[in-house]
Design goal:
Layout lengths: L1 H7 L2 H187 L1
Length: 198
């Protein structure tokens, strides 16, 4: 009888029934399994991550060691290059120092010669200045005497001119008086003559 029932069920119906059973039971079973084993799954995931981190750290360490070795080699080459350049610079500095010493001695000699020349010139200028000072003093005294004589002469002339001006002024005043008296007399005579004529 069970066989006849199975024969009557078609393939599609069977798949639909199995699918429904599986969805119903399998879903709840998987959810229960996941709930029970969730901590283990997390631990496994965390362990996998730690392994990956350790592998990456190991690879990074190897890369850093390689870089450090390359930097170390570069630093050693640079150190040798700096040592060579330092020696060359030291030699150039010593040569430059000797050259500066030679130039300094030559400059010192030239400065001393220039100092002697400037001292001689200053002494000659000082002597010329003193002679010029004496000459100016002499000319100043002569000019002072000449100016004083000129001033006395000008004072005498001004006094003589003042006296002549006073004499002219007296004559002019006298003439004005005479003219006033003359005009008065003429006016008086004209008035008197005018009275007799009438």
């Amino acid at each position: 009888m069970a066989e006849t029932v199975l024969e009557e069920i078609t393939q599609e119906e069977l798949e639909r029934v199995v699918k429904g059973i599986l969805e119903l039971h399998l879903k709840t079973t998987i959810e229960d399994y996941l709930r029970r084993n969730q901590d283990k799954i997390k631990e496994l995931s965390l362990i996998e991550r730690l392994i990956k981190v350790e592998e990456e750290l190991k690879a990074l360490k190897e890369i850093e060691l390689a870089r450090f070795e390359a930097v170390e080699k570069r630093f050693e080459a640079l150190h040798r290059e700096i040592a060579i350049l330092s020696q060359a610079s030291e030699k150039r500095f010593e040569a430059l120092h000797r050259e500066i010493a030679i130039l300094s001695q030559a400059s010192e000699k030239r400065f001393e010669a220039l100092q002697r020349e400037m001292t001689a010139r200053f002494e000659a200028s000082e002597k010329r200045f003193e002679a010029l000072q004496r000459e100016i003093t002499s000319l100043s005294e002569t000019s002072q005497k000449h100016f004083e004589a000129l001033q006395r002469e000008m004072t005498a002339r001004f006094e003589a001119s003042e006296k002549r001006f006073e004499a002219v002024e007296k004559r002019f005043n006298l003439m004005l008086w005479f003219m006033g008296i003359g005009f008065s007399m003429v006016s008086t005579l004209v008035a008197i003559f005018g009275l007799y004529v009438r």
